[in-house]
Protein backbone atom coordinates (compact mmCIF):
# COMPACT_ATOMS: atom_id res chain seq x y z
CA UNK A 1 0.00 0.00 0.00
CA UNK A 2 1.16 3.54 -0.71
CA UNK A 3 -0.04 6.65 1.05
CA UNK A 4 -2.56 7.52 -1.68
CA UNK A 5 -4.37 4.21 -1.10
CA UNK A 6 -5.00 4.83 2.59
CA UNK A 7 -8.42 5.68 3.97
CA UNK A 8 -7.20 8.87 5.61
CA UNK A 9 -5.60 10.14 2.39
CA UNK A 10 -8.70 9.50 0.29
CA UNK A 11 -10.88 11.14 2.93
CA UNK A 12 -8.61 14.20 2.98
CA UNK A 13 -8.77 14.63 -0.81
CA UNK A 14 -12.52 14.04 -0.90
CA UNK A 15 -13.08 16.58 1.85
CA UNK A 16 -11.05 19.23 0.03
CA UNK A 17 -13.07 18.54 -3.10
CA UNK A 18 -16.37 18.72 -1.23
CA UNK A 19 -15.38 22.05 0.30
CA UNK A 20 -14.56 23.41 -3.15
CA UNK A 21 -17.83 22.08 -4.60
CA UNK A 22 -19.75 23.84 -1.80
CA UNK A 23 -18.16 27.12 -2.89
CA UNK A 24 -16.33 27.60 0.39
CA UNK A 25 -12.78 27.48 -0.99
CA UNK A 26 -12.45 29.62 -4.08
CA UNK A 27 -9.04 29.84 -5.76
CA UNK A 28 -6.51 29.09 -2.99
CA UNK A 29 -8.86 30.03 -0.16
CA UNK A 30 -9.02 27.72 2.84
CA UNK A 31 -6.79 25.08 4.42
CA UNK A 32 -6.95 21.72 6.21
CA UNK A 33 -4.59 19.98 8.62
CA UNK A 34 -5.08 16.38 9.76
CA UNK A 35 -3.12 15.01 12.72
CA UNK A 36 -2.02 11.41 12.14
CA UNK A 37 -0.56 8.66 14.29
CA UNK A 38 2.97 7.46 13.56
CA UNK A 39 1.62 3.93 13.17
CA UNK A 40 -0.57 5.08 10.29
CA UNK A 41 2.45 6.61 8.53
CA UNK A 42 4.81 3.70 9.17
CA UNK A 43 2.56 1.45 7.09
CA UNK A 44 3.06 3.50 3.94
CA UNK A 45 6.26 5.59 4.24
CA UNK A 46 9.84 5.35 5.45
CA UNK A 47 9.79 8.17 7.99
CA UNK A 48 13.60 8.39 7.99
CA UNK A 49 13.55 9.72 4.42
CA UNK A 50 13.16 13.50 4.58
CA UNK A 51 12.63 15.24 1.25
CA UNK A 52 13.11 18.77 2.52
CA UNK A 53 13.30 20.77 5.73
CA UNK A 54 10.89 23.70 5.87
CA UNK A 55 11.33 26.54 8.42
CA UNK A 56 8.34 28.00 10.25
CA UNK A 57 7.53 31.32 11.96
CA UNK A 58 5.98 29.65 15.01
CA UNK A 59 7.50 27.54 17.78
CA UNK A 60 5.46 24.32 17.65
CA UNK A 61 7.53 22.48 20.27
CA UNK A 62 4.34 21.19 21.89
CA UNK A 63 3.71 19.24 18.68
CA UNK A 64 7.27 17.96 18.25
CA UNK A 65 7.38 14.59 16.52
CA UNK A 66 3.76 14.74 15.37
CA UNK A 67 2.68 14.07 11.78
CA UNK A 68 0.22 16.14 9.75
CA UNK A 69 -1.32 15.92 6.31
CA UNK A 70 -1.66 19.55 5.17
CA UNK A 71 -2.83 21.62 2.23
CA UNK A 72 -0.22 23.72 0.45
CA UNK A 73 0.22 27.48 0.37
CA UNK A 74 -1.32 29.05 -2.72
CA UNK A 75 -2.79 25.73 -3.82
CA UNK A 76 -6.30 25.39 -5.22
CA UNK A 77 -8.67 22.95 -3.50
CA UNK A 78 -10.14 22.06 -6.89
CA UNK A 79 -6.79 20.48 -7.84
CA UNK A 80 -6.18 18.41 -4.69
CA UNK A 81 -8.04 15.30 -5.80
CA UNK A 82 -6.45 15.12 -9.26
CA UNK A 83 -2.88 16.10 -8.31
CA UNK A 84 -2.44 15.58 -4.56
CA UNK A 85 1.35 15.29 -4.71
CA UNK A 86 1.56 18.91 -5.89
CA UNK A 87 -1.10 20.39 -3.62
CA UNK A 88 -0.82 18.66 -0.24
CA UNK A 89 1.98 17.19 1.84
CA UNK A 90 2.82 15.06 4.82
CA UNK A 91 4.99 16.83 7.38
CA UNK A 92 6.54 16.08 10.76
CA UNK A 93 7.35 18.73 13.36
CA UNK A 94 11.03 18.61 14.32
CA UNK A 95 12.11 18.46 17.96
CA UNK A 96 13.07 22.14 17.94
CA UNK A 97 9.49 23.04 17.00
CA UNK A 98 10.65 25.54 14.39
CA UNK A 99 11.32 23.29 11.40
CA UNK A 100 9.23 20.78 9.50
CA UNK A 101 10.35 17.56 7.84
CA UNK A 102 8.60 17.07 4.51
CA UNK A 103 8.04 13.34 4.06
CA UNK A 104 5.72 13.29 1.06
CA UNK A 105 4.12 15.64 -1.47
CA UNK A 106 4.36 19.44 -1.85
CA UNK A 107 6.38 18.90 -5.01
CA UNK A 108 8.14 21.62 -7.00
CA UNK A 109 9.15 23.55 -3.89
CA UNK A 110 5.65 24.01 -2.51
CA UNK A 111 5.23 24.72 1.22
CA UNK A 112 2.41 24.17 3.73
CA UNK A 113 -0.46 26.64 4.05
CA UNK A 114 0.46 30.10 5.30
CA UNK A 115 -2.12 29.54 8.05
CA UNK A 116 -0.09 26.65 9.49
CA UNK A 117 0.83 28.58 12.68
CA UNK A 118 -2.89 29.27 13.29
CA UNK A 119 -3.67 25.60 12.69
CA UNK A 120 -0.92 24.42 15.01
CA UNK A 121 -2.01 26.79 17.77
CA UNK A 122 -5.57 25.49 17.45
CA UNK A 123 -4.38 21.86 17.48
CA UNK A 124 -2.45 22.56 20.68
CA UNK A 125 -5.48 24.23 22.30
CA UNK A 126 -7.91 21.48 21.33
CA UNK A 127 -5.62 18.63 22.37
CA UNK A 128 -5.49 20.11 25.86
CA UNK A 129 -9.25 19.72 26.23
CA UNK A 130 -9.93 16.74 23.94
CA UNK A 131 -7.39 13.97 23.35
CA UNK A 132 -9.48 12.67 20.43
CA UNK A 133 -9.00 15.90 18.49
CA UNK A 134 -7.43 15.46 15.02
CA UNK A 135 -8.63 18.10 12.51
CA UNK A 136 -8.49 21.85 11.96
CA UNK A 137 -10.34 23.19 8.93
CA UNK A 138 -10.61 26.74 7.59
CA UNK A 139 -12.88 27.93 4.79
CA UNK A 140 -14.88 30.89 3.50
CA UNK A 141 -18.38 29.52 4.12
CA UNK A 142 -20.51 31.93 2.10
CA UNK A 143 -23.53 32.65 4.27
CA UNK A 144 -21.61 32.72 7.55
CA UNK A 145 -19.22 35.19 5.94
CA UNK A 146 -22.16 37.34 4.80
CA UNK A 147 -23.69 37.31 8.29
CA UNK A 148 -20.59 38.97 9.72
CA UNK A 149 -21.48 42.12 7.75
CA UNK A 150 -25.10 42.36 8.93
CA UNK A 151 -25.49 40.55 12.27
CA UNK A 152 -24.50 41.50 15.80
CA UNK A 153 -21.06 39.90 16.25
CA UNK A 154 -21.30 39.22 19.96
CA UNK A 155 -20.86 35.49 20.47
CA UNK A 156 -24.11 35.08 22.37
CA UNK A 157 -26.20 36.87 19.73
CA UNK A 158 -24.64 35.03 16.79
CA UNK A 159 -24.91 31.65 18.52
CA UNK A 160 -28.55 32.18 19.46
CA UNK A 161 -29.48 33.12 15.90
CA UNK A 162 -27.78 30.03 14.46
CA UNK A 163 -29.42 27.79 17.07
CA UNK A 164 -32.83 29.25 16.15
CA UNK A 165 -32.44 28.72 12.40
CA UNK A 166 -32.19 24.90 12.37
CA UNK A 167 -33.34 22.52 15.09
CA UNK A 168 -30.17 20.41 14.80
CA UNK A 169 -27.75 23.28 15.49
CA UNK A 170 -28.00 23.21 19.28
CA UNK A 171 -27.35 19.46 19.21
CA UNK A 172 -24.36 19.75 16.85
CA UNK A 173 -22.63 22.71 18.53
CA UNK A 174 -24.15 23.22 22.02
CA UNK A 175 -21.07 25.17 23.11
CA UNK A 176 -21.92 27.80 20.49
CA UNK A 177 -19.62 29.69 18.16
CA UNK A 178 -16.80 32.08 19.01
CA UNK A 179 -15.87 35.30 17.23
CA UNK A 180 -12.51 37.08 17.03
CA UNK A 181 -11.83 40.63 15.80
CA UNK A 182 -10.71 41.15 12.21
CA UNK A 183 -6.97 40.39 12.08
CA UNK A 184 -4.41 39.94 9.31
CA UNK A 185 -4.47 36.28 8.16
CA UNK A 186 -1.30 34.21 8.22
CA UNK A 187 0.03 35.91 11.36
CA UNK A 188 0.75 34.53 14.79
CA UNK A 189 -1.64 37.17 16.19
CA UNK A 190 -4.68 35.70 14.46
CA UNK A 191 -3.55 32.20 15.41
CA UNK A 192 -3.29 33.13 19.07
CA UNK A 193 -6.74 34.75 19.07
CA UNK A 194 -8.28 31.70 17.39
CA UNK A 195 -6.57 29.22 19.70
CA UNK A 196 -7.77 31.11 22.76
CA UNK A 197 -11.35 30.59 21.58
CA UNK A 198 -10.70 26.96 20.59
CA UNK A 199 -10.18 26.17 24.26
CA UNK A 200 -13.97 26.12 24.66
CA UNK A 201 -15.59 26.07 21.21
CA UNK A 202 -14.95 24.10 18.02
CA UNK A 203 -16.14 26.88 15.71
CA UNK A 204 -14.42 30.26 15.49
CA UNK A 205 -15.72 32.95 13.13
CA UNK A 206 -13.23 35.26 11.44
CA UNK A 207 -15.36 38.34 10.57
CA UNK A 208 -15.38 39.35 6.88
CA UNK A 209 -13.18 36.32 6.14
CA UNK A 210 -14.49 32.88 7.07
CA UNK A 211 -14.57 30.26 9.81
CA UNK A 212 -12.32 27.79 11.62
CA UNK A 213 -13.65 24.40 12.69
CA UNK A 214 -12.11 21.51 14.60
CA UNK A 215 -13.06 17.93 15.32
CA UNK A 216 -12.22 14.26 15.78
CA UNK A 217 -12.13 13.45 12.08
CA UNK A 218 -12.65 15.03 8.66
CA UNK A 219 -16.33 14.10 8.33
CA UNK A 220 -17.22 15.46 11.76
CA UNK A 221 -15.42 18.74 11.20
CA UNK A 222 -16.85 19.21 7.72
CA UNK A 223 -20.31 18.44 9.10
CA UNK A 224 -19.86 20.92 11.93
CA UNK A 225 -19.11 23.76 9.52
CA UNK A 226 -21.80 22.55 7.11
CA UNK A 227 -24.44 22.68 9.84
CA UNK A 228 -23.53 26.23 10.92
CA UNK A 229 -23.38 27.33 7.28
CA UNK A 230 -26.85 25.83 6.61
CA UNK A 231 -28.22 27.83 9.54
CA UNK A 232 -26.62 30.98 8.16
CA UNK A 233 -28.15 30.24 4.75
CA UNK A 234 -31.61 29.87 6.30
CA UNK A 235 -31.05 33.15 8.16
CA UNK A 236 -30.24 34.84 4.84
CA UNK A 237 -33.48 33.55 3.27
CA UNK A 238 -35.52 34.55 6.32
CA UNK A 239 -34.15 38.08 6.24
CA UNK A 240 -34.78 38.30 2.50
CA UNK A 241 -38.41 37.28 3.13
CA UNK A 242 -38.88 40.16 5.56
CA UNK A 243 -37.67 38.66 8.84
CA UNK A 244 -38.99 35.93 11.11
CA UNK A 245 -42.60 35.97 12.30
CA UNK A 246 -41.95 33.00 14.60
CA UNK A 247 -38.89 31.00 15.66
CA UNK A 248 -37.59 28.23 17.88
CA UNK A 249 -38.05 29.51 21.43
CA UNK A 250 -35.65 29.22 24.34
CA UNK A 251 -38.04 26.70 25.91
CA UNK A 252 -37.94 24.66 22.68
CA UNK A 253 -34.14 24.74 22.75
CA UNK A 254 -34.00 23.70 26.41
CA UNK A 255 -36.39 20.82 25.71
CA UNK A 256 -34.21 19.83 22.75
CA UNK A 257 -31.05 19.90 24.86
CA UNK A 258 -32.69 17.68 27.49
CA UNK A 259 -33.91 15.21 24.87
CA UNK A 260 -30.49 14.87 23.24
CA UNK A 261 -28.42 15.05 26.42
CA UNK A 262 -26.41 18.16 25.51
CA UNK A 263 -25.60 21.20 27.63
CA UNK A 264 -26.11 24.60 26.00
CA UNK A 265 -23.49 27.27 26.63
CA UNK A 266 -24.18 28.73 30.06
CA UNK A 267 -26.10 32.00 30.04
CA UNK A 268 -27.14 31.77 26.38
CA UNK A 269 -30.74 30.64 26.98
CA UNK A 270 -33.36 32.11 29.29
From TrEMBL:
Binds 1 zinc ion per subunit. It catalyses: L-rhamnulose 1-phosphate = (S)-lactaldehyde + dihydroxyacetone phosphate. Residues 10-236 form the Class II aldolase/adducin N-terminal domain. It holds the Pfam family Aldolase_II. InterPro entries: Aldolase_class_II_sugar_metab, Aldolase_II/adducin_N, Aldolase_II/adducin_N_sf, Rhamnulose-1-P_Aldolase. Its EC number is 4.1.2.19. Belongs to the aldolase class II family. RhaD subfamily. This is Rhamnulose-1-phosphate aldolase. It comes from Lactococcus lactis.
